[in-house]
Description:
By secondary structure, this protein is an alpha/beta fold.
Amino acid sequence: EKNGSLDFKPKNLDFVILTHAHVDHCGQIPVLFSDGDSMPVYMTEDTMKIAEHLLDNTAKIVKDNPHPIFNYQDLERAKKEFRAVDESVWEKINLPGIPGELRMMFIRNEHIPGAASVCIEVAPENEQSFRLFFSGDYNILNAFSSKTTQIPCEILDKPISFFLMESTYGKTSKKHVEKGKFAVDVENAIGKGKSILATAFAYGRMQNILLVLKQMQESGTLSKKIPIYLDGGLGICLTMLFPSLKTVDVKDFFPDNLTFVTDRKILLSEKSENEQKIIVATSGMGNYGPAHDYIPAFIEKENWLIYITGFAAEGSNARKIVEAEKLEEVFVSGIVRIKKAEVCSTSEFSSHARKEELIDFVKGFKKIEFLAWNHGSSQSKEIMAKQSYMLENVKNVGIIDGKTMYRVNKDGYVKE
């Protein structure tokens, strides 16, 4: 219901900053251009490569809605305004008619390849300069990088007036991460003669699953004779693009016996039923793409394991089959089915830091005038706000709730 509705006027925007290419961050960018408005959109080079593909796919989905939030013309106008910026260097932003100077620095962030945190320095004419910092979605490391997130000392050691921090996993501790669960569950299912459907988000999750399957083959816990099928046009496209990204260090993550699916009907046919196999398919929540077809086809088969590898929103196919009891009726993809397949899920592939890591990240900064928690459930934001009240380097704490406006200045903020 919220998609497409903006509580501000795009024509009032001077520029846009995109921290990474997940659709919950970039999916409405074309909406900003639907009235012919124009503004630069800054991002890293890798984010630009991915965002263009993701938005092309989003345009295909939204065009079939009764009231599409944008069209292909809006998307093309947006793409022309995409600007790739280098990491770890100050980039000056020219704003005609506004006195003073503005500059920003993109800082590599290991949430996913191409992701960044951003520091903005505002220097009004004849006034004291101040800085804003946006974490973006944050993680200290990822499976495809040999690096960890490192914020430069010149950012850490100077006061931050307004610090916007994500809180997605504010309810989850590091000790609750189920590391290795996916590999163990896959090994057990294969040992029982079951086939596996793993639902995966096209960017990051699908590639991560392939890497784990390759590592299992190399360790001998998964036979190279078991065929692995990759299905989903966007997922396959991004998987092929992945090794070319500058921020991807692990280039060879393709398991043996991997096939890109060109005809889904073959895998859904009775003829294919006797072949034990692993299918990795988009979308992660099972509402779109090939997973939308596979879930109702396999949920009634006892010799299948359906594996949900990421967040499943309420009402999604993935959430429905995870919460349903064995032999319970479940309504998926517009069809009523009886749940007979085994269904598993894991949060181990999440690319977000947990609550201790979020606090450690904030503690690394010398002085924060105002810390605002964002991008999480109300409960997650409240938990993180309470945790950060006692931090010695933080003066004030607040929550972004969609109701309160903050006017930012050198003293941190003025609440409105």
